[in-house]
Amino acid sequence: MAEINGGTLYEINQNLMANEKKLSGIDLMNRQKSLQAFFHNSLSKYFMMLCKEQSDYTLFKLNNHTTSAMKAAEEVLICMKNRGAILAIDRTKENNAFEIWIRGEDDINSCYYLFEYDEGVIEC
């Protein structure tokens, strides 16, 4: 029997994203509301947006969850649009982060994770 190598789960998802179209304006508005709720409901002060594949790390600091949540959600979308076409923004299965897929100018699909990062920042 021949062995079929499908690649890693990341590579499989990356290939599946090749068929996705960028999110519409209405979809982005709905995702922005979800991001805003994520920031607002969190007890964390720091959040990381990470794409290991691209070695791309962005740190967000919320000064006040009530006033900063909307701004943080807007900034996430701005950051993602600067990196390419936004294909998907979904909560992870564990519901503790967002998985954000973008298609860069090089037509490579990359996944970014947005998650709480208080334990990764040491204030002295």
Overview of the molecule:
This protein has 124 residues and is of the alpha+beta class. The chain is built from three helices and five strands; from the N terminus they run H-H-E-E-H-E-E-E. The chain has a five-stranded antiparallel beta sheet. Helix 2 crosses helix 3. The longest helix has 19 residues. It starts with 8 loop residues before the first helix and ends in an 8-residue tail after the last strand.
Would you kindly provide a brief summary of this structure?
With 124 residues, the chain is an alpha+beta fold.
How helix-rich are the residues, as a percent range?
25-40%
* Rg value: 16 Å
Overall form: globular
Biggest sheet details: 5 strands, antiparallel
Strand order of the largest sheet: 2-1-5-4-3
Strand content: 25-35%
> End-to-end distance, in Å?
60 Å
What would the average pLDDT be, to the nearest integer? 91
- Give the low-pLDDT segments: none
Structural class determined from secondary elements: alpha+beta
Write down how many β-strands occur, each being a DSSP E stretch of 2 or more residues: 5
Question: How many H/I helices?
Answer: 3
**What are the secondary-structure elements, in order, as H or E?**
HHEEHEEE
